[in-house]
What we know:
5-stranded antiparallel β-sheet; 25% strand
Amino acid sequence: MVLVGAAFRAGSIEPAAALAALLAAIGGWLAGRPAREAPIDIGIDDSGCIAARRLTAMDETTEHLRCVFAAPWLITLKSGTLRVRLWPDSVPGNIFRCLWVHIRWNPDRQPADRTGVTAPVQPG
């Protein structure tokens, strides 16, 4: 801050360019801030589906989510335009592990297409 003031006194900074840079920095800072949204509660409902609801007093609707990506380091869930990214450090560790195991071993998963694959024949 002191250097900027000294540069203005010495006349070595163009005021219009400095103002434009300042406005661009403020705009970048405002654009980089996350939007304020209600927290989301995620869990497994009675039917075994992953469900989410926003924790607001007015809205108690539950949305069913489907997994679009699951790895030990990230789970991504989607429902319409709602995308939820879960990192292991964003929830308690045992909750993340339980959700990851549920997604990994969910009975609704589609089996791999095994058509045309044959088992090896024992010689003899």
